Give the backbone structure.
Amino acid sequence: MFSNAITWWTFFKISIHERLIYRADFMLGTLMRFLPTLTQIFLWWAIYDVISTPGSIDQTGGPDGDIAGYKYGDMVAYYLLVIISRAFSSMPGLTRGIANQIRSGEVKKFLIQPVDMQGCLLMQRIAHKLVYYLIATIPFALVFWLCGDFFVDGWPEWDVLIVFYCSLLLSFLLGFFLESCIGLIGFWFLEVTSLTFIYMLMTFLLSGHMFPLDLLPDSIGNFVDFLPFKYLAYFPAAVFLGKVEGAAMYQGLAVEVFWVVLFIVLSRILWWKGIKHYAGFGG
Amino acid sequence: MQPSYLKVFLTFARNSLIRDMSFRMNFVLQCLSSMSWAAMNWGLFKIIYRHTGEIGRGTGWHENEFFIFLGTVWIVNSLVQTFFMANAEEFSELIRTGNLDFALLKPIDTQFLISFPRVNWAQVSNGILGVLLIIYSMFKIYSQDPEAAEIGTAGVMSKKFSWIAIPAFLFFVGCGATVMYSVMICLASTSIWFGRNQNLYNFWFYITNFYRYPMEIYQRGGGIGMALWCTFTFVIPILVVSNIPARILAQPLGSPWKTWEWGLAAFAIVASLWSLLASRWVFRKALLSYRSASS
Amino acid sequence: MAIIEIKNLSKTYKVYQKQEGLLASVRGLFHREHKEVHAVRDINMTVEEGEFVAFLGPNGAGKTTTLKLLSGVINPDGGTATVMGHVPWERENEYRRKFALVMGQKNQLWWDLPALESFRLNQHIYRVPKQVFEETRDTLCEMLDVTRLLGQPVRELSLGERMKMELIAALLHQPEVLFLDEPTIGLDVVAQHKIQKFLKSYQQERNNTIILTSHYMKDIEALCKRVVIIANGSIYHDGSLEDIVDRFSGDKIVTLHLAESRALDGLANLPNVIEIEAPKIKFRVERDEVGKVLSQILGAHAVDDIVVEDPPLEEVISNVFSEAEKSQEAELAARSNN
């Protein structure tokens, strides 16, 4: 167990180094992340402009239009919060990385060396994320300071904040294990690019990345409620904005825990079945 | 003696097709996924139009007009993804592995050689969907009784369809694809300086995000909006990529075109030539810094 | 006129230093240190038409860099070179049509397609007329015995088969000058031998000019009359293989087959015995001493058979490399002291 910890720590450090080498990439990447939000802000402005009474200004200082309970300020705040959720839950390159390792046979090293693949990848991912937060704090803080006015209700209560943070951490785990599962399918299908794409599509649409899920017609919305995707983006943001409150909030958190556990178990099963299949197949 | 560029390109297209067909399952999945991506996009705006009748007051981007715009975006996107995207990604990979060496050895224009080897046939599906969406929306707009034409804030609008709009549309889609190609080559070239350009696809996605919407949403967005509009019209001219061809078919402000619309169209032609030259310059500059990964 | 002329050719790389420790890495975000590596310095040489030259040298000596400079893949920092009258890094199409570079560690063939399709692509790129293309392709495939593999996706070929395909792809436009960078690396002995045989007959038939780098002495022994030793980016020796042995190895290796094993007892204390395997003994003698030593032994013992040979090339070359590096370092030290 202890030696395991040392291996993982070493792996963690190497990952941080590796991450820092490609720094130019990195800085640009962080800055670019805000560009789509910028377009969203303008798009929604153009929409609220149409549905509000001309020249109207409500008590929050924005146009008075209301879409599914979201004022213009809420809408923008929602998109900004979703960036934070996605900073935790998105795992760029994870699925493809696992699939490539399987395809190139690199995965063999995990069969030979006494290290666990998922453990290594998790360490690597935590390292990447930490470095990301280290560098991204400044632009994030800047953007949120600039956009502070959109948060018309100010900071939420402390218990809401705690649930918010928990849901973010859980969304990291959920994203990691969900994407691992898809990557591990590579043991059976060599090309998982399309699967990745479909997953990306689902998260985009069903996680609330593109728009608040409250906008969905009820028939679809009720169905989306039963999927894990909404915890990758929508849930933390909705908690912060007070769209999910009280008992529903804690219930949501519990369901999120359930999904995380489910995907941890599923990914372990896929891994064991996968290497068995791989060994049987002859690599 | 010049190499036959057409023959080389056809060989690329042929080889890619052979390759795609040897992974048929993957090909079908790719078609499906890119089409569902489009469908999702469509769904988003269906939802938005449940809550509003227009995007931007008085811009004329009602639902049908907007879906022509969306269809145009899909077509340009499909062109980019069929012909350029995989190659730009491959280019970064060539630099990283040092396999660019082989491209430099060949007696043919290097930029040509790295720009077109992969043709991603599956992405054509997206463009077909775009064409269908445009035809459907056009039908809905132009089959309306002119007497009952939509009444916007700008008053009664008359839209006349003329067949010349179709070649004009295709021409400006071509200009648009040229601009997108140039931006992409410039982006991909940066990987010579920055090393691994893992985020190329992300950068691309982020930048092209701006051309997915009618430019009016920026023009009405105050100082920052205007700054963005200027940047993405005059510096990196990606707004003209979608806006000009879409305006030709959708005529959001009715026909005939306003003077500024004509001006912008003329600018689009200049911009596509200019960006092509710029991409060539950047590519050459970048090649000078290529150091060939040692084996 | 010489077909390749190189004058004072130099190439320097900047190499970024990776710093140890986490903090240093973070600092590296804002500032990176680098040092200069002189991959090629002041190389001068000429190659005549029809020569088969080998570049020898330890890893990182500058062989590959030199080949890349000659192919125009990278630009030099100083000096000039012309190949068939062209300056390589101007990358004129006319020049690029006349030479080829084969790299054993990289592949230019389309991974998922049959090699045939990649050949066809090269046909159009190099604008080889159809008939010429087909003839050349068939001849080469026959020589290398890969005709039956033409329709198989490249990814399914073995390393040796792939290398043969790479060679064919590079030779389809009948280059006059050929640069081969470790073409046999990673291949088994049989495949190596086949490629050597092919290169030899190909070169004899067409009399083209070839520069080869390799780590396998067998390649070089089989193919090249002229050997250029490069160490630390400079030419250390340029001459025939025999020259190298003469210059860098003062020893001969003598193997005696004695009539009686008993006689070995008296010989075991010879200096520099390599191995004893009764009734044989193998030992090293300085070249000038060979006659003297042998006549002594023959006077004292009955000997069935005598073999006197040069030490194995690998050994000589590795001596040369270490000597070359030492002398280069000394020279550099002297230069920096001045």
